[in-house]
Amino acid sequence: MSPKIVFRTLGPETLLMEWPEVINKETLTSVTDYFKAISNELAEQIITCYPAYCSIAIHFDSDRISAAKLQESIRQLDLKEGQKSERPCWELPVCYAEVYGVDLPRMAEVKKIDPEEIILLHTQTSHSVHFFGFLPGFMYLGGLPTALHHPRKQTPTRKIQQGSVAIGGSQTGIYPSSSPGGWHVIGNCPVPMFDPSKNPPCFIRMGDEVKFNAVEVDEYLSIKELIAQGKYNPKTTALDG
Q1: pTM higher than 0.70, yes or no?
Q2: The CATH classification of domain 6-80, taken from the options 3.20.20.70, 3.30.230.70, 3.90.25.10, 3.30.1360.40
Q3: Is 65 helix (H, G, I), strand (E, B) or coil?
């Protein structure tokens, strides 16, 4: 059964679809299904739309369609629910060595878990891309095992390195560029997450899945070299929607 959706207007030319404020795979699937359907099937009726964790904001031209008519068109898309498309699962290499996972030893100490157990749990899990925000290309990944949930730092780190894989609360994120941040860095991914020279600049999309593959320092450096030569692409497999 799909989550209940509420419609409300935000000004004369924006319609907001809201789901219950629960971050889970069921809501993510519903949001991404509607986002794709609205973008593809109602393109002539809207200007653009923006998905978030539990909502979609739809900007439209009130001279062409009313909010009520647009809402009716969206409700008609219910008939297409269940027609799932394939979505990719990206396999991303991560080096969890302490030189890159600078917060991993302390996190393991606080949680009373061996660092190796944290790495095992983190790499065994399939992480869902729920949202992009904070920085261009910064993914908020759901699906983190409960044993790895960890509050954000009280005092943010002044500079977190590009590619840092970090845990904040119940989510994982990858820093697409160097930045201050309050998440706990457990490793580093050599694959660039954001490239403004490409279209789209992010090769991973909301609704995709991500699995992390632990690599040693030598392999990490080799992958970085291959990336610099334009000879590396992350592995991907197709999943049923």
Answers
A1: yes
A2: 3.30.1360.40
A3: coil
